[in-house]
Write a structure and sequence with these properties.
Helix 1 packs across helix 12 and helix 6 packs across helix 7. The chain has two domains: 154 residues, 3-Layer(aba) Sandwich (Rossmann fold); 151 residues, Aspartate/ornithine carbamoyltransferase (Rossmann fold), CATH 3.40.50. The chain has twelve helices and eleven strands. The N and C termini lie close together (8 Å). Strands 9-8-7-10-11 form a five-stranded parallel β-sheet. A four-stranded parallel β-sheet has the order 2-1-5-6, sandwiched between helices. With 317 residues, the chain is an alpha/beta fold. It binds phosphoric acid mono(formamide)ester (CP). The site of phosphoric acid mono(formamide)ester has 9 residues, from helix 2. Phosphoric acid mono(formamide)ester binds next to helix 2.
């Protein structure tokens, strides 16, 4: 594998799932692959899980890891070509990226949507600059429109917990005080549309995701109806995608918060969230602390999804 930016890079998700479950049983079997190789992780945005799980995955494979927080300690980077650089950004991405590529063998990038320009966000401007100019294989650690390491971990978790061959999986919008990107719901939809599940998305009107991610999913605007018979509830907030409201908060309606009453409509569904989660906005304390909450094992699988991806990239060097 050269780059990892979406589900298609895994080629066959059944094979990827098998690799994941095998690696989980024996995560130190491939330390030879990463010997004398370096994984550089570039963060334009904060992280807890991605930062730790990806480093752990790379170390499991015998790699060295380096982490750069672009906005803390590195030079501020200009992204636009043709700009007269007389402001507060002393370095241009067009030099910085190939320089970063000199010091490593593979690069992970986290660069969220900025909600300033939808075309820039949805063309994955920053991630693609790393792919174009670093000279090294690049993987997404959450970019503007996708979080494929998270969605792969979500898929692994559903595979481990499902009690029937084709479970009903519901992605539900939930309220949040700040505008969040669509990366997690986009990638989750991308993966669920490839998986053997009944996939339903529920959200208030105005929060429709881009069609290329929704594809064949059922969109149900009545959250209670969507929850009926569900085996997995995946909660997430996102800001509006559709014009003219791109990046805006249209609702903070707390009747969409996932609570015990709503979970009672389900088939004893497991509760999932990518974390970090705002309690009593997205989900009540009662639900996230319940036996049905699998947010911690879900986060644990971030190590496994990253390890499958990095292993495949090392095999392609
Ligand atoms: N789920 C996730 O990506 O967590 P972090 O933002 O903490 O990395």
């Amino acid at each position: 594998m050269r780059n990892y930016t979406n589900v298609k890079d895994l080629q066959n998700i059944k094979d990827a799932l098998k690799d994941a479950l095998d690696l989980k049983q024996n995560r130190y079997a491939y330390t030879h692959l990463g010997k004398n190789k370096t994984c550089l992780m570039i963060f334009f945005n904060s992280s807890l899980r991605t930062r730790l799980s990806t480093q752990k995955a790379a170390m499991n494979l015998g790699m060295h890891t380096m982490v750069l927080d672009v906005n803390q300690g590195a030079w501020k980077l200009e992204t636009e070509r043709g700009v007269i650089m007389d402001g507060d950004k002393p370095e241009h991405m067009l030099e910085a990226i190939p320089v970063m590529g000199q010091y490593c063998d593979i690069i992970g990038v986290r660069a969220f949507a900025q909600f300033e320009n939808k075309a820039d966000d949805y063309s994955e401007k920053i991630l693609n600059q790393f792919i174009q100019y670093s000279g090294k294989p690049v993987f997404s650690m959450e970019a503007a429109t996708g979080h494929p390491l998270q969605a792969f971990a979500d898929l692994i978790t559903i595979e481990e917990y499902k009690k029937k061959a084709r479970p009903k999986v519901v992605l539900t919008w939930a309220p949040h005080p700040r505008a969040l990107p669509q990366a997690v719901p986009n990638s989750f939809a991308d993966f669920m549309n490839e998986a053997d599940v009944e996939f339903v998305i529920t959200h208030p009107r105005g929060y429709e995701l881009e069609e290329k991610f929704v594809r064949g999913a059922i969109v149900e605007y009545d959250q209670n109806k969507a929850f009926e018979g569900a085996d997995f509830i995946y909660a997430k907030n996102w800001a509006a995608y559709q014009d003219p409201n791109y990046g805006k908060i249209l609702s903070t309606d707390r009747s969409w918060t996932v609570d015990a009453q709503k979970m009672d409509l389900t088939n004893k569904a497991y509760f999932m969230h990518c974390l970090p989660v705002r309690r009593n906005m997205i989900v009540t304390d009662e639900v996230i602390e319940s036996e049905q909450s699998i947010v911690v094992p879900q986060a644990a699988n971030r190590e496994i999804s990253a390890q499958v991806v990095i292993k495949r990239m090392l095999e392609g060097l």
